[in-house]
C-alpha cells in the first residue's frame, strides 16, 4: 500500500497508474503451458527456438511484460534493451493513433526519391534534437546492423574520395568493380574489437567478434581485430592494473595500424561504449580518449556503436558522453531504445560526393522516426536520463552489497552508469540457471557474453522496481 | 464524364471514388518552387540529392501522387515498385487504425525471443497464405537487402551442415571464425548474374552487378558472376537467336560451376525473374528451367529474388510462376509490394540446425506483417492479379503500336507479364529527357538500367489509366 502511494508521485506512477506493484504468476512455471503450445504452433512456420515465452503485449504494462498464460513479469530485459518508455505507453499510443502515423504507414515512401513533406521536421524535432556535438546530419536505415553497414559505406567512400581528390572514377575502377575486384572494389577495412558486437549482416558480422555461433559458416571479410581491455573489479581495487591493461590494448591497437596494414587501409574503427552482447565489458574514458587520439593521428574514422548503449540508459543520453572526448567521434550509430529502425549521425563531410551512393529503396521509415520523436520528447520532458542515473546510483550499492554477501555473483560493473549494470557468474550453467530461476520468481532478465547477466530496464524503472529486483535476486541466490 | 461513369464500376473507382480522372498541374514545372524549397531544407540534414520532388502523401490518392506544390501526377513508378493498393487506400487505413497495429507499433517485440501471441496468425493469414508450392516456412527481415542476406546465411549454413553431417563444430572452426578465417568463416560463395540487383548491404552488394555507382569504393566478396541472356525484341522475330543466347548463358553458367570453383563451393545462386534495376531484362522459362536443372545437378541452392517482381504486378502473384518449374526454387525473397519489411520463404530444411544462428534483435516487424496481410487480402478479394494481367494485355499492344510509330522507343518487353513492362531509348540522355518531360505532363515514371523506362503502377491501375499513360507518352514523343 505504501509502495502504491509512493508510486503515485513518481513519473512511472503518473504514466502507468495501473502498473502492477509486483509480479503476478499464474502458471506453475514460466513458460507456462499456453506459451509452450503457442510457441509450438509458431514453430511450424517460423524459427522461434530462441523464444523465452509467447508474449501478450496487449496485457503488458509499464515495466511489466505479460505472457499468454497471464503471468506478469517485471521486465529488466525489455526486448533486448529496447522499450524505453515501458509497454503500452500512453504517449506512444497517442502517436500511433495520429493522422501523421497513419499516413506514414499506409503510404510508405521511398524517402530519398520522394521524401515526405514532414520528414525534415520529424528528423529535426525527434532525432537531430538528440544529436551529440559536431553531428549535423542523420542517415536513416532500418536496423542496428544496417545503420552500422551504411556508416561503414560512408567511411569507405569518404576515405576513397580523400585519396582520389578531384579526379573522377577511372576506367579501371569502373570495370573492376563490376567483377568485385580492386581497385573498384576497395581493399580498405574496418577494425573492430575483440568481443564486440555490431550486427549480423555480412559487413557488420565481419566486425562482430562476440561468439562463434553468431559467425560460423558465414563468409567474412579479412578485417582486423584489436584487443579490448579486460578490466578487474571492483575498479577501485585494481586502478593500476586496469590502467596498464588499457594502455596495453592501446599500444597493440596502434601496433596493428602501423605494422599489419598499409597506411590509410583502415578506413574506420567501430567500438561500443560497453560491449554488450560480448559480456557488458566496460573501459574507461582514458581508453576511449586514447582510441580517439590514435585514430586522429592516423587519419582513421571513429564510429561509436550506440545501438545498445544509446538513448539514456547509461545515465547520459549517449554513453560516449561519459568520455568527455576532446574531439567528437566521426559517426554515432543507434537503434534499439528508439524502438525501431537504425540511424547514424555524422557531420556533413561524411556525405558521399555524389547522390545514389548512400541510397536504397526505403532509406528509413517515417513511421519509425515518428515513434523515435515521441520517445525523445518523453525522455526530455520527464528528465528520464537524469532519473535513470539516479535510479542506477540507488541500485548499484544494493547490488554491490549482495555481491559481497553472495560470492557466486561478482565483477559487478556499471557504477555511475545509470541502470546499465551487469555482473558475472563463474560458469555459464550457473548464469543460465539464475536467469531461469529469476523468471520463475517473476523477473524477466537477460544474459550476455558467456557468464554475464545484464540489466536493461526501461527509462521508467524506478526505486520501487529496483527494490523488487534486488529482493528477487537475493531470494534466488539464497535458494 | 464517360470516363468517370466507367470508373464507378471499376475496382479502383469503388476503392477511390474521388481519384482524379487526370493529372492536375499547378506549378509551371515539376518539381515546383515549393518542392525545391522544401528539398533544400531537408538537404541540410539528410542526403536527398536523389529526390524527384517533395511529396504530399496526405493529398495523394489511388494512382495519383501529389507534391507539395499541389500537382497531382499519375504515378507509374510508385515508390520504386511498391504501393500495391494505391495511395491512402481505405482498407490499409482501417488496418493502420486497428488496435492490433497500435499495439505492434508501441511495443515493438524482439520477435525471436518474445514472439507476440498473434504473430503465427498474422504470418499464416497474410504471408504464408501467399507462399508458392513447397514453401512452408517464412523468415521475417526488414528490407529486400536483408531478406536476401538472411537467405544467403541460410544457404551457407545449410550447405555447411550437409558437409559436416552429424558432427559438431570442431575446435579449429570455433577458433578461426573469431579471426574471420577459414574454416570457421566459409569460403563458399553466392553466384549472381550480370546486371542483377540484390541490394546494397555488403553481402547483397557483392551479388549486385547493376551499375558501378552502386558498388564503387565498397569492399566486396570475390563471388562469381554468370552472364544473363540479352534477348532481342520483338521476341517473335528472334526466336532462334534468343534460344541460342539463353543456351550460351546456361552453358557458361555450368562451365563456371565446373571449372572455376571447387565442387560445393557455390552454396547458392540468386536470380531475379526480371532484372529490374539492371534494365528490366527478361529471360524465358527455358532459361530459368535450365538454371533449376543445373543447380539441382550440382547441389546448389536456387534463390529467386522477387523483391521487385513479386506480389502481382507480373500478372501472376509470383513472377517465377511464369516458368512452370518442374522443381520449385529453394528460397524466394520479397519485399516491396508488401510495402515494407523483407521476407523469405523456404522449406523446413533451410532452417539452421541450431537456434540463435538465424537471429537478430527484431527478426522482422509485426506492424509490417500486418500491412502485408491486408495487402494480400485486398489482392485476393479483388482478384487484382488477374486484373493486372488483363490491364497489361490491354496496354502492351498500344505501346507496341507507339513503338512502331516512333522509332526512338524500342525493345518493348513484358508481353503477357502484367503491367511489368519496359522499353529502351537509344541513349541515356534521351531516356532521361523522356522521364523529365513525362513529369511535366503529369506522369511520374521511372527509369532503370542505362537507357530503359520501366512501368511499375499499382495493382489498381486500370484501362482508363493505361489510356492516359499511352496518350501522354505519345504527346511527349511527338513533342
UniProtKB/TrEMBL annotation, chains A, B:
Signal peptide (residue range): none
EC number from the UniProt entry: 2.6.1.19
Gene Ontology molecular function, alphabetical: 4-aminobutyrate:2-oxoglutarate transaminase activity; pyridoxal phosphate binding
Chemical reaction(s) catalysed: 4-aminobutanoate + 2-oxoglutarate = succinate semialdehyde + L-glutamate
InterPro entries xrefs: 4NH2But_aminotransferase_euk, Aminotrans_3, Aminotrans_3_PPA_site, PyrdxlP-dep_Trfase, PyrdxlP-dep_Trfase_major, PyrdxlP-dep_Trfase_small
Pfam families, alphabetized: Aminotran_3 (PF00202)
GO terms of biological process kind: gamma-aminobutyric acid catabolic process
SUPFAM superfamilies associated with the record: PLP-dependent transferases (SSF53383)
Cofactor: pyridoxal 5'-phosphate
Keywords, comma-separated and alphabetical: Aminotransferase, Pyridoxal phosphate, Transferase
GO cellular component, one term: mitochondrion
Domain of life per record: Eukaryota
Family per record: Belongs to the class-III pyridoxal-phosphate-dependent aminotransferase family.
Subunit and interaction comment: Homodimer and homotetramer.
Protein's name according to its UniProt entry: 4-aminobutyrate aminotransferase
